[in-house]
Amino acid sequence: MTRVQQKAKTRNGILEASIKLFKIHGIEHTKIAEIAKEANVSVGTFYVHFKSKEDIVSAIYYEGFNHFMNEKIDQIETTGLSLKEILLKVGIFELQFVENVGLEITTAAFIANLRINFEIPGNHFKNRTFSEKIQSLIVNDVESSEQNSQILFEEFETIVRGIMLTWCFKNATMSIVDFGAPILKKYIL
What we know:
The chain is mainly alpha-helical. Helix content is 80%, strand content 0%. The chain folds into 2 domains: 1-50, Arc Repressor Mutant, subunit A (Orthogonal Bundle); 52-188.
């Protein structure tokens, strides 16, 4: 394994350990030393990869979400589905990721990512590589014209983010997939 691969593996291990512990103990009550122990790294190694727990939350939502969604989108791009069916699948995949990381991490990610985007305008979409794949799916669709593809993308993103925020405001009283899938079907199909 190359140094770059080892570094990525270590970073991913820290992210996975963080998700696990945040879901058990909460972000505030999870100590960095506990994350390092769960990830089988030293505290110093933790700080090589992350500055803080807020940094981890952002990484979960940028790196983890990108990895998850890029894999899922690659699996459906060639299935011959209509654009609406593809967007429905993509939206449900996004909700599945949110369900996996849970309410507290999702809420904290919204806060952290809004703060960063306020300080560095445009940061959010720059760090979300899977958004480019969604935009490409829309642009490449025969029914989409160049004029409305950006609007369609923004509408899709607004629906999905709205579902996520509403689920957070409802304190995850039900599965986000069960809550969000009917909304996606109603407004996308």
